[in-house]
Amino acid sequence: MKHSFEDHTSTIQATQEIPATPAAPRRMTLNMGPQHPSTHGVLRIVLELEGETIISAAPDIGFLHTGIEKEFEQKNWQQAVTLTDRVDYLANLSNNLVYALAVEKLLQIEIPARAQWTRVMMTEFSRLNSHLVWLGTHALDIGAMTMFFYCFREREDILRIFEMFSGQRMMTSYIRIGGLALEPPRGWQQAVGKFIKAFPSKVDEYEELLNANPIWTRRTKGVGFISLEDMLDLGVTGPMLRGAGLNWDIRKSEPYSSYDKFDFKVPVETSNDVWSRYRVRIQEMRESAKIITQALEGMPEGAWQADAPHVVLPEREKMKTQMEALIYHFKIVTEGFRVPAGEAYQCIEAPRGEIGYYVVSDGTSKPYRVHMRTPSFGNLQGLPKMLEGILIADSIAALGSMDFVLGDTDR
How far apart are the C-alpha atoms of 106 and 129, rounded to whole Å? Predict the structure, then answer.
């Protein structure tokens, strides 16, 4: 069958008029972690990418397998303090404190003012320690190596103070049920005073290095947005909330351990991005320095342990000279002390947000149940919302601004 030239031409024109089908977008699933150094721990994130844009992010936790909550049931009440150190190892004193406060509720014992003020001072040092590690490593992720050395320089001084008080640099177990593990050492005022006098000028150095740095500002401003409503729904707490404009700090709203006697402000920013979280933590370091200064200058005299011989180990001199003290010492060390049956919940403001301990006693010398509401676990729930829609190049800056610790997540 023959076709005319005109028929052939019309066929070509008709073909050209058919619109081309657009190419389907190509999506790729990327596994980030758990060995990735910038995830600040053994966290795995499954990213779904369209080009360089993150479509979805699913955090995968559980690689530490600590089982700390279950281990509480195998220790007596005082021995379990050592487990709290290992939950959030950058804020171990905060975990010491919240656990001790919860158990002391069940025991109904009163802690002397000197012990309470010392607890406040040490937990604020713990806040400084944690924020310094965060700022140094977060800046390193973004490319500011100098900040890492500066922050760890100050952190080393704090660890020396911890060692002076407790004999340990990290896992101090210094805050105990009934007071403190040891009486504050001789010369602590000079050591603390020397550090806290110089520290504000160090924070000035950090801000001089970063605030006007164009790389730092471009990598942090407008990056990592998550709405305040989503954060509240997902259980996000701490500097994340205050960076979104919410003035909420348990030290102010529900004071504990004499925090109501200290004068300090709650830093709040409104831009709700990586930059605002950086600003909140910088200001929190300045406020912690003020609290430590007030504790140093106004530290009350008196006992550093509660008057509770059935809970607190007697002084060594009394143990050597008084039979009753020797008996109490023997029974507490070998059997532990009994806690009245019941349950209690206590929460405090830790560097990463709200820590809550729920303890249950069945009247024996060991906890029946201890459950922790840790800030890193709650904050990680907001990670998918935060990473959705941003470039993969900004993901490290965004997730780093959460300041989570995986030991705080995998209990």
Answer: 31
Rounded to 5 degrees, what are φ and ψ at 48?
Answer: -105, 120
Q: Would you list the DSSP string of 110-169?
A: PPPHHHHHHHHHHHHHHHHHHHHHHHHHHHHHHT-HHHHHHHHHHHHHHHHHHHHHHS-S
303: buried, middle or exposed (CB in 10 Å: 19+, 13-18, 0-12)? Answer: middle
Q: Which of 328, 331, 294 is nearest to 314 (CA)?
A: 328
Task: Give the Cβ contact number of residue 74 at 10 Å.
Answer: 11
343: helix, coil or strand? strand
CA distances from 153 to 150, 191, 319 (A): 5, 16, 42
Cβ-based neighbours of 258, under 8 Å, separated by 6 or more: 113, 116, 117, 120
Asked: is 53-408 a CATH 1.10.645.10 domain? The reply is: yes
Would you list the domain boundaries of the chain? 53-408
Burial 177-197 (b: 16+ CB within 10 A, else e): bbbbbebbeeebeeebeebbe
**Integer Cα distance of 109 and 306 in angstroms:** 7
pTM comes to 0.90
Alpha helix stretches (DSSP H) within 227-382: 228-234, 239-242, 250-253, 274-298, 316-321, 323-335, 375-380
State how far the Cα of 3 lies from the Cα of 12, in Å rounded to an integer: 13
Q: What angle do CA 27, 30, 35 make, to 5 degrees?
A: 175
Q: What is the pLDDT of residues 271-312, one digit of tens each?
A: 999 999 999 999 999 999 999 999 999 999 999 999 888 888
β-pairing, 179-180 with 369-373?
unpaired
Peptide linkage before 22 cis (omega within 30 of 0): no
Tell me how far apart the terminal alpha carbons of the chain are, to the nearest angstrom: 81
Q: Note the pLDDT tens digit of each residue in 331-379.
A: 888 888 999 999 999 999 999 999 999 999 999 999 999 999 999 999 9
